[in-house]
TrEMBL record:
Its EC number is 5.1.1.8. One of its GO terms (molecular function) is 4-hydroxyproline epimerase activity. This is 4-hydroxyproline epimerase. It comes from Sphingopyxis italica. NCBIfam families: PRK13971.1 (NF010578). Belongs to the proline racemase family. The keyword DNA damage does not apply. It comes from the Bacteria. InterPro entries: Pro_racemase_fam. Keywords: Isomerase.
Amino acid sequence: MRHSFFCIDGHTAGNPVRLIVGGAPLLKGDSMSARRQDFLARFDWIRTGLCFEPRGHDMMSGGFLYPPTRDDSDVGILFIETSGCLPMCGHGTIGIITFALEHGLILPATPGRLKVEVPAGVIDIAYEADGDKVTAVSIVNVPAYVAARDIKVEVEGIGALSVDVAYGGNYYAIVEPQGGYTGLDDMGAARLIELGGLIRQAVQAKFEPVHPLDPTIRGVSHVLWADKPRADGADGRNAVFYGDKAIDRSPCGTGTSARLAHLAGSGQLAVGDRFVHESYIGSLFTGRVESETTIAGQPAIIPSITGSAVATGFNMIWIDRSDRFWDGFQV
Ligand code: PYC
């Protein structure tokens, strides 16, 4: 049996975004969070088939548009990625919204603004356009907070580390320069990946975060290596490790949100402050601490992230069950 998926491919700040506009499965569930669980239970082969080799690669990421389940939202997004179905993805949202607007797939009731239901909650979008081209997308994200500070781990190859865990739509282990971690340029991508996997495992063994309002969102999925900036105008640089072998090419929207909560929580940022985050390859997102809030009584912030995306082409992808590698593989 052959399944066809019509995709708009592109990138946000260098990281891939595959918007699947044809071939989305019908999902059960009265929220995007419930639909995420249904997708994982019944259709995960679509994610692995479209994200893993030979149709994808280590960084592949994307999503589907769905009608929202809530009256206050214009559209719903389900994210797919090599590591799973993320509750929220910042670079993915910027790409998906850009491609959908540029191709007339979403007609906002209020030009320039959208409310989007994602598995992690509801986000507000503001966008700018020049004719048919979307030039910038800003996301006012779900509440971000620091889940734990100073988790001490001992990791082979780098030694003792103190790591903080913050949530920005996914849970991040944040590693600042210290001891054996002397900065991104000293390490190189291969070591950041190898050590990122070991750090994620070591942190998880000591502390498994669970979202206080949605227990299906749990576990440290990403490691954010923090560093000082290199690019003009940037305030910080990062390399975000995800999946098994990926370093985010973008500054990572949910990672930037987690980092904003992390810096605000230690008094290094205040409401209204901007933080320009530089990625491993030098691309930029502008983050901002919009306001303070709480999540189940814990201090939290509402972060925003602004960036832009570029569509690179249409892609009609087949998944044919007679292909030995129909649902993809990883090495
Ligand atoms: O931009 O939120 C993000 C993201 C998550 C994983 C890769 N990018």
